[in-house]
Amino acid sequence: MSDPVKYLLDEQHLPRFWYNINADLPEPMFPPLNPVTRQPLSAEELEVIFPRGVIEQEMSTEREIEIPGPVRDVLRQWRPSPLYRARRLEQALDTPAKIFYKYEGVSPTGSHKANSAVAQAFYNKVEGVKRLTTETGAGQWGSSLALAGSMFGLEVLVYMVKVSFNQKPYRRAFMEAFGARCIASPSDTTECGRKILADTPDNTGSLGMAISEAVELAAQNDDTKYALGSVLNHVLLHQTVIGLEAQKQLEMADAEPDMVIGCTGGGSNFAGIAFPFIGDHLRGGRKVQCIAVEPSACPSLTKGKFAYDYGDTAQISPICKMHTLGASFVPPGFHAGGLRYHGMAPLVSHLTELGHIDPRSYNQLECFAAGLQFAKAESILPAPESNHAVRAAIHEAEKCRESGESKTILFNLSGHGNFDMQAYTDYIGGKLKDLDYAESEVAMALAGLPSVD
Ligand SMILES: *Cc1c(COP(=O)(O)O)cnc(C)c1O
Q1: Would you say residue 275 lies in a domain?
Q2: Helix (H, G, I), strand (E, B), or coil: what is residue 441?
Q3: CA of 96 relative to ligand 1 center, distance in Å
Q4: Which of 118, 285, 349, 367 gives the lowest tally of CB atoms within 10 Å of its CB?
Q5: Residues 6+ apart with CB under 8 A from 100
Q6: Domain that includes residue 393, residue range
Q7: Residue 294, in any domain of the structure
Q8: Dist. CA 249 → ligand 1 center (Å)
Q9: How remote is the CA of residue 122 from the centroid of ligand 1, in Å?
Q10: Residue of 237, 301, 292 lying closest to 62 (CA atoms)
């Protein structure tokens, strides 16, 4: 038999614990602050919008946090996800590098986001919450929370960035199929939305605005809480099943990665695959280079400022120390909608400052080209977001071809692109351009950072 191309774990090898990197940080993180008082947030303040189970995880410094049985029972439907050896891609690239990818597109919603949606829905359900509100950009997070809400019997209300709401009718249909309500943001259903519409009636929305609308409703209603799809510690925690499984699968393959690669929007899928490896190193193990890949048109980690900033447009959510382009910055409309957020997960930012993460950026055209090259070799069409990780993996494999080094590369294929065919239609039709962000707009947005002393 020829060498294997996929490494599968049995259901019984689904991790029992999430890995919390907070336990191993060489320096503690900066605490999130109340946006009004600018004082560190208490658990009680967070209870207005989040369930206690989630807040405990947000603040925990315990290394291993048990995954509740009912959450594992749902995750088992598609987890452990497969790890593939990209043999045909290696051949096509004529590289001595070994390329492995962890495939998160096997979830029912087609991306890693379901991993956290299920956990968040569970903690809300056990605390008697009736309704969840959230934001969604391209629709992957909204779809995942819609699915998780229907599994645990919760109503779900999704504010979808208006430009995507109009461009991606199938994502909306998916959410509605699972019983969720989907509203184009900015909307007239919230105070924040009405204020934005009064100033700019044609506003096409942003993630920051949609977050404001969803948080406002959760803060005003006792039976309603808010769920965030990335950025916060507990979301990154829930995604660590990806890296924990990959570590076992690489052992099966008798391989040790030299580098781990993930794309970064808010930072959750990258953290999910990379944190277990960074954690091993922080506890004295071997160092693996961890590469976070972002779009050149929204380069928070590579070009942003490490500072306290608002998470949303209306400035009602906690302020966090992170790499940011400024909360009022609206990124240009490139196709990787899941990567269009002004900030970055505080944990990813912190570890980047400490030198444990290497950030880099690529333009969208080279990412689509890499995605199609990958698809032709491996027969999976990646999500436009995931193409950024693919681009970096191919780049590294090409460097090995030049140098003759045989490095082992692991990357996270965070989702499939089957809901993103318009993006591919535009790319193949030659309609896409590389977009640049306006430096003057970032400068203006950064001038609006909250002052914290
Ligand atoms: C949302 C999304 C991302 C970006 O979000 P992160 O929190 O940075 O992971 C990346 N890939 C896919 C497929 C997504 O749906």
Answers
A1: yes
A2: helix
A3: 29
A4: 285
A5: 83, 84, 85, 86, 246, 250, 253, 255, 257, 408, 409, 410, 411
A6: 73-110+234-446
A7: yes
A8: 22
A9: 21
A10: 237
Give the integer Cα–Cα distance in Å for 443 and 413: 33
Residue of minimum CA distance from atom 2 in ligand 1: 338
Residue 388, domain CATH? 3.40.50.1100
* Beta-bridge partner residues of 85: 100
Residue nearest to atom 14 of ligand 1 (CA): 338
Mutation test residue for ligand 1: of 101, 230, 334, 340, the one with most atoms within 8 Å of CB = 230
Phi, psi of 375 (to 5 degrees): -60, -45
Given a contact cutoff of 8 angstroms between Cβ atoms, the answer to whether 7 and 82 are in contact is yes
pLDDT tens for the chain, residues 1 to 453 = 578 999 999 999 999 999 999 999 999 999 999 999 999 999 999 999 999 999 999 999 999 999 999 999 999 999 999 999 999 999 999 999 999 999 999 999 999 999 999 999 999 999 999 999 999 998 999 999 999 999 999 999 999 999 889 988 999 999 999 999 999 999 999 999 999 999 999 999 989 999 999 999 999 999 999 999 999 999 999 999 999 999 999 999 999 999 999 999 999 999 999 999 999 999 999 999 999 999 999 999 999 999 999 999 899 889 999 999 999 888 877 777 778 899 999 999 999 999 999 999 999 999 999 999 999 999 999 999 999 999 999 999 999 999 999 999 999 999 999 999 999 999 999 999 998 888 899 999 999 999 886
Ligand 1 atom nearest to CA at 267: 8
Tell me the three state secondary structure of residue 157. Answer: strand
User: How many CB atoms neighbour CB 4 within 10 A?
Assistant: 12
Atom of ligand 1 nearest to the CA of 229: 7
In a domain, 440, yes or no: yes
Question: Which residues on adjacent β-strands are paired with residue 324?
Answer: 305
Ligand 1 center from residue 264 Cα (angstroms): 7
Q: How many domains does the chain have?
A: 1
Tell which one of 237, 347, 348, 414 to mutate to probe ligand 1, the residue whose CB is within 8 A of the most ligand atoms.
Answer: 414
Query: What is the CB < 6 Å shell around ligand 1?
Result: 111, 113, 140, 230, 263-270, 338-339, 383, 385-386, 414-415
- pTM beyond 0.90: the answer is yes
- CA of 301 relative to ligand 1 center, distance in Å: 15
309 occurs within a structural domain = yes
Considering just the CA atoms, what is the radius of gyration of the chain in Å? Answer: 20
